[in-house]
Design brief:
This protein is of the alpha/beta class and about 290 residues long. Helix content is about 35%, strand content about 20%. The chain has a single domain, classed as Arginase, Chain A, CATH 3.40.800. It is built from ten helices and eleven strands. The strands form two sheets. A nine-stranded mixed β-sheet has the order 1-5-2-6-11-10-7-8-9, sandwiched between helices. Strands 3-4 form a two-stranded antiparallel sheet. It starts with 5 loop residues before the first strand and ends with a helix. The protein binds manganese (II) ion (MN) (2 copies). One manganese (II) ion binds near residues 114, 133 and 135. One manganese (II) ion binds near residues 133, 219, 221 and 233.
Amino acid sequence: MQTENLIPIRPGFGGFDFPYEKADVVFFGAPMDVTSSYRSGYRFAPAKIREASANLETYVQSSGLDVFEKLNVSDLGDLMLVPTDVEASGRAIAAVVRQILKDRKIPFLLGGEHTITYFSAKSFKDCCVVQLDAHRDLRDEYMGDKVCHATVMRRLLDFLPPERIVQLGVRSCSKDEAEFLDRTHIAAYDSGRLIEDHAEVVKEVKDIVGDEDVYLTVDLDVLDPAFAPGVATPEPGGPSTFQILKLLRELGELNIVGCDVVELVPPHDDGTTAFAAARLIYELLAAFSKKSR
Ligand code: MN
Ligand code: MN
């Protein structure tokens, strides 16, 4: 692994300090903080998620296992990005993701704004992208930007067919995005459907994805702002942390080959959102750990 533009941070997520060579899952921070249209401060997010992770148990009660037991987890630290250049930062992100994939490990990105998903997911071949988000992020451009937090899923369609995208928890979009969704037949399960019809939604998602490779992107604003106030664009009317934990436990059974957790803005967080993020990540690690048994 080329590490000259990675700033090592110890302890890493959860205090996991396995050597990279032996790791199954590899964390790194991608603190991109450029295109927010409202709140910013994403650059502080990886540190706050790591801090929260150090203060939660690594034993995941719902799965009855300690994520240390079966899974080797490494944390490369934070990637140095070019503060004013989304494309240059994106190339750096893609390079690290590609290297981790080449070494046959699961990359796990700590955002950063949602834009990082474009550069990360682009590095995978033929994967499905499952998105948890309050927003569709399907605008073709936003305030003149083609590549930003509000267009990220639309940009994925530049290289992925719409059948390979699944949206979960959305409760806000523009009329154009709604019409675009109808035209393209992207599978989408809105917030209300997810909350009221959880089991059926999970079953349908599993049917759509099957045993394909899955890239999972978790925009923390999928959570109701009561449970995750510290996000860039809070959107009322969402599921609880409990509901999303349950969802991730089930989605964790899919063939997940890459993940990111994005959109935390620590200057607007009292710690609630960072702790929710860390707990969601542990739930996923427990699911990966279960599969490796
Ligand atoms: Mn969002
Ligand atoms: Mn988003």
